[in-house]
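User: I'll paste a sequence; please echo it back and then give the predicted structure.

Assistant: Echoing your sequence first, then the prediction.
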Amino acid sequence: MRARRTNKWHKFSPDVLPAWVADMDFGVAPAITAALARLTRDQEYGYAARDGVLAAAFVRRMERRFGWHTDPADTVAIGDLVQASFSSVMAFSEPGDAILLQLPSSRHRGHRPPPDRQPDAR
């Protein structure tokens, strides 16, 4: 693993086990590897045209797993857990509200809410 060029394996000395960051040392499914190879081969680096495919998949999954009946029009595709969490907190809470994030989740390292959104320090 130390042959990898990632920050995880080179931030600290070799005698330190790098458990300070989420595990990124797992294999990738062959279908994902093939899709990335195709995108690279075709130099297709733009934003994907989703055309409701993700929303439809989400609706099916929520129905199958939880019996929820959701409207695809109510879904928003977001590719970043930290930004999705931050946006949700900003949209659906008020200063001083208690916030609970279900784990596993990413810790938003080194960033604080804007001064008008920080919890009361009393």
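The chain has three domains: 1-46, 49-76, 78-112. Residues 49-76 form one domain.
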